[in-house]
Structure to design on (294 residues):
């Protein structure tokens, strides 16, 4: 029987579309199951399991799934709970699902710094991360663990302050709270484990990981082509952001100019193009890179 790889992603939430899009870009074609709990990989022996994000690190840690995509906030909290029983590790951060876990308190409080948390009650869904933060800052405070609606805890008298995920800050403002300090910065990440597996299965994991890394590199990368004066070639190539070995080609019948082709791994801004032009470059063309395997 063919061995199939299990990848866990969030069933329905902020990470779902990005996770499916990433797997798509890795070349995986899948058909959704009728109950939407499992997507069946058509062109690779891969099953996508759709689950709650909080379950993903555990599923990878206990070997039920070979790969998973979860927020570092969730992973870190679960690892903190029971470090000796946690066997998953991060392969790479994925540059989506960015958010910050922050302390916050009533707008009427004149916040003077982390020491103000001393002796207070702080409501959060991330008691592990918060306790570690308090410990690092030598603060003794009571951590009140709640599963939802953290922002209303101060109004309900359940806590003095809160520690919650913040993106725009609009929810905080609506509850007359102000953001204070960043406790933990997070983005989505690809997880795997070190379980023993057959060489075939391991090779498939390696292939997917390599493709994910390729997709991440391509995001910022551009292919640039231009004509450069031979006498100022070094100045022109030095201006190309994040390019290692540009290809230099002669132009038939022209002795004072060459063609430069390069992959730039960093964003090319208009300012860069303007500087290239000032350095003597002409016919500058910037193209998107679709796929890259290094
Ligand atoms: P589930 O039903 O899967 O448990 P959830 O309500 O816990 O869903 P979402 O709100 O969809 O989860 O958030 C999933 C992840 O998205 C978070 O754990 C976090 O890593 C990331 N995220 C990005 N921005 C935010 C934000 N503004 N608020 C909350 N989470 C965010
Ligand atoms: Zn969740």
């Amino acid at each position: 029987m063919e061995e199939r790889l299990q990848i866990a992603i969030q069933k329905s939430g902020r990470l779902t579309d990005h996770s499916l899009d990433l797997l798509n870009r890795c070349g995986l074609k899948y058909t959704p199951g009728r109950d939407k709990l499992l997507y069946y990989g058509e062109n690779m022996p891969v099953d996508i399991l759709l689950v709650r994000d909080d379950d993903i690190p555990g599923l990878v840690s206990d070997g039920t799934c070979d790969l998973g995509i979860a927020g570092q906030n969730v992973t870190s909290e679960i690892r903190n709970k029971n470090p000796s029983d946690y066997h998953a590790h991060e392969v790479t951060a994925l540059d989506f699902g960015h958010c910050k876990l922050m302390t916050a308190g009533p707008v009427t409080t004149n916040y003077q710094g982390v020491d103000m948390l001393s002796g207070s009650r702080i409501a959060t869904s991330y008691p592990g991360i918060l306790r570690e933060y308090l410990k690092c800052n030598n603060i003794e405070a009571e951590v009140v663990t709640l599963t939802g609606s953290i922002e209303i805890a101060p109004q309900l008298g359940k806590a003095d302050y809160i520690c919650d995920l913040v993106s725009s800050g609009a929810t905080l403002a609506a509850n007359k709270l102000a953001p204070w300090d960043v406790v933990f910065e997070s983005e989505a990440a690809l997880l795997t484990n070190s379980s023993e597996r057959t060489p075939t299965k391991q090779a498939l994991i390696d292939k997917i990981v390599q493709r994910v890394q390729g997709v991440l590199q391509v995001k910022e990368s551009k292919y640039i082509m231009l004509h450069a004066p031979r006498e100022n070639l070094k100045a022109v190539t030095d201006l190309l952001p994040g390019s290692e070995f540009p290809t230099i080609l002669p132009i038939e019948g022209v002795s004072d100019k060459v063609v430069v082709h390069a992959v730039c791994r960093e964003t090319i801004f208009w300012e860069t193009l303007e500087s290239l032009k000032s350095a003597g470059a002409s016919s500058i063309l910037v193209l998107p890179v679709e796929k890259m395997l290094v």
Summary: The helical segments are 16-25, 56-61, 72-81, 127-136, 170-174, 199-220, 233-238, 270-278. The two ends are 33 Å apart (CA to CA). The pocket of zinc ion (ligand 2) is lined by residues 52-54 (CB under 6 Å).
